[in-house]
């Protein structure tokens, strides 16, 4: 059994839920499944314990001797030791098996703490946006290609009307030659937002006066999408895809996809019109 400190504790099957699952609601918990007879465990254990002291509360190290934690080891599907699990909010978020050198373990811990900090920043976006921005900007400067950080930062900037700053982030990530889905969603929101000031009634009048002018019909579809009249916009887009598939219809298809991206996940409108669009295309 290891010596206990403020940041290192021993657990048993009887206390495992409280020591690990409940404690992980308050912060990062690292569980080390080990045994006295295991030579690699005796190598890794002191490394983990030393890091727990170094980080001074950055995480709680819970030592789980497999002799007194057989049920917990089974629940975590431990097939060999040492086996180390990171638990946050009652869920295993990462793990590794076998001994690793201290720099590699430290890097693993840093990654987990960064993940925890990012989660906290996302939770603060509405209640404490300034604090969230400080955290997100700090992480983004460290890893400017990480869309998991860039997307919430860009969304925050966009929600505050700081569109130019948001676009800078998008353009920087686009230099890689691709965008992740979460960044495609932000880009779509920027595109739609740029159409919010279009005079819908003027566009409607122009389109009504020239029903066979596909560009004017598309302008109306854009204006409607910019004013969040999505269903009306979709109907015009479908008509354009049907009548002018490879020209204005292609722009209409792309507009629909942009709206699909910004609508809430599981939206019935998305499901309905994605199906209608697919029927026209295929």
Brief summary of the model shown:
GO terms for molecular function: protein-disulfide reductase activity. The protein has 282 residues and is an alpha/beta fold.
Note down, in words, how this protein is organized:
By secondary structure, the chain is an alpha/beta fold. The protein folds into three domains: 106 residues, Glutaredoxin, CATH 3.40.30.10; 70 residues, Serine Threonine Protein Phosphatase 5, Tetratricopeptide repeat (Alpha Horseshoe), CATH 1.25.40; 82 residues, Tetratricopeptide repeat domain (Serine Threonine Protein Phosphatase 5, Tetratricopeptide repeat). It contains 13 helices and five strands. The protein has a five-stranded mixed beta sheet, with helices on both faces. A hairpin with a 2-residue loop joins strand 4 and strand 5. Helix 7 packs across helix 8, helix 10 packs parallel to helix 12 and helix 11 runs parallel beside helix 13. It is elongated, with a radius of gyration of 26 Å.
Number of helices: 13
Structural class, please?
A: alpha/beta
Strands side by side in the biggest sheet: 1-3-2-4-5
Considering the protein shown, what is the CATH homologous superfamily of the largest domain? Glutaredoxin
- How many domains comprise the coordinates? 3
Q: Radius of gyration from the CA trace?
A: 26 Å
Strand content: 5-15%
CATH topology descriptor of the largest domain:
Glutaredoxin
General form: elongated
What's the main sheet like? 5 strands, mixed
């Amino acid at each position: 059994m290891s010596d206990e400190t403020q940041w290192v504790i021993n657990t048993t099957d009887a206390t495992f839920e409280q020591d690990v699952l409940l404690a992980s609601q308050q912060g990062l918990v690292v569980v080390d499944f080990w045994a006295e007879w295991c030579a690699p465990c005796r190598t890794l254990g002191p490394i983990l314990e030393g890091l727990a002291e170094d980080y001074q509360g950055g995480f709680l190290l819970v030592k789980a001797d497999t002799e007194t934690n057989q049920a917990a080891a089974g629940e975590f599907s431990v097939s060999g030791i040492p086996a180390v699990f990171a638990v946050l909010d009652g869920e295993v978020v990462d793990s590794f098996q076998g001994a690793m050198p201290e720099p590699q373990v430290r890097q693993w811990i840093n990654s987990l703490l960064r993940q925890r900090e990012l989660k906290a920043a996302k939770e603060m976006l509405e209640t404490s946006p300034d604090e969230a921005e400080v955290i997100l900007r700090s992480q983004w400067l460290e890893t400017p290609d990480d869309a998991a950080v860039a997307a919430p930062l860009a969304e925050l900037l966009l929600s505050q009307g700081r569109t130019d700053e948001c676009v800078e982030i998008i353009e920087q990530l686009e230099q890689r030659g691709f965008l992740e889905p979460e960044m495609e969603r932000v880009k779509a929101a920027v595109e739609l937002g740029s159409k919010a000031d279009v005079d819908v009634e003027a566009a409607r009048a122009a389109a009504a006066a020239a029903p066979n002018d596909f560009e004017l019909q598309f302008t109306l579809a854009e204006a409607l999408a910019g004013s969040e009249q999505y269903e009306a916009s979709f109907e015009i887009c479908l008509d354009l895809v049907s009548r002018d598939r490879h020209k204005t219809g292609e722009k209409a298809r792309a507009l629909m996809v942009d709206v699909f991206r910004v609508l809430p996940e599981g939206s019935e409108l998305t499901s309905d019109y994605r199906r209608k669009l697919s029927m026209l295309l295929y």
